[in-house]
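>> Question from a student workshop board

For tomorrow's exercise we were told to take the sequence and the ligand below, predict the bound structure, and bring the output to class. My setup keeps failing. Could a helper post the expected result so I can at least see what it should look like? The ligand is oxa(dethia)-CoA.
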Amino acid sequence: MSKTFAAITGVHGYVPDYVLTNEELEKMVDTSDEWITSRTGIKERRILKGVEKGTSVLGIEAVKGLLEKTGTNPEDIELLICATVTADMHFPDTANLIAAATGLTKAYTFDLSAACSGFLFALTTASQFIAAGTHKKVIVVGADKMSAIVDYTDRSTCILFGDGAGAVLLEPSGEYGVMDQQLHSDGQGQHYLYMKGGGSFHPPSAETIANKEHFIVQDGKPVFKAAVSGMSDVVSKVMARNGLTNDSVAWLVPHQANKRIIQTVASMADFPIEKVMVNIQKYGNTTAATLPLCLFDWEKRLHKGDNLILTAFGGGFTWGALYLKWAYDTPS
Ligand code: UT7
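>> Workshop helper replied:
Here is what the output should look like for this input. Compare the format with yours to find the bug.
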């Protein structure tokens, strides 16, 4: 019997209007445009302003645009998975809120949390439903309002993150789509990148607020090292077992956490930087949104049959690589 793959048949992205520049950050903490640019590659990031605006606002815009551009009837969507670590609330899931606002009345929905690897984990999960033949139209969203959990007095983290969302439509194909992947988790990483307060471990209290436990904490150097070795390892393994070389891969699509990490992973896999998607300078690290925002930014340059290698690394630790055969030429 021939195999069914989950093809991406549309992608859309959304970032909020407000641009937080390095120059503005220079006025908030002891940093400089020179330090941020040379150490991370980031020049600006987008911030969702306004009260009672959660991650769902970003996801809704991405899904609305996706439905519109692919001419999809919202009632035909059977499943929506939202990867996020900044859900609007503990429950209901942000996926439910996105579905309600975009008319997905027939879909069941859930959130998936794997930090910066969230989109890769969600895409893998969703693709299994298509490959199994049980689902025909599935949406995967990666969305994070990182500004909600960033301490804007901590120069080591506040310069890194931004807000954004991306969404893809998955449909069955005999030829294109998610061909292979390798994902990993290692709980030892919990000590280097985390947000301590607000869950069942340290429920919110005056004390957790006073101790700033509702913000991201990161020990950057060990995360940097683990990100480079983790992503390089899985990229080479996925490429090798699919007979891919850096000539036959059109694009490397890496998580956007630090330009130096991206450059090191690319050079370890012998990828010329011209074949690596990099938009960190515009958005910073948008966590679960980085990969779909790359696909969205590059959509017009992608061709049917292009081999893409997606890779990500994030809190947990979580990491992985995924081999995707692009399914369409963008109509001009
Ligand atoms: O997406 C999830 C996974 N996350 C990642 O992959 C991030 C991985 N880590 C990184 O990208 C980098 O470690 C950072 C960008 C977070 C930090 O870069 P670094 O080169 O590892 O810097 P560092 O933390 O070792 O700090 C070097 C110096 C320190 O000063 P001293 O101790 O040498 O005097 C810091 O205090 O740079 C200082 N520093 C800053 N200086 C100016 C830290 N942040 C800043 C800043 N502006 N914003």
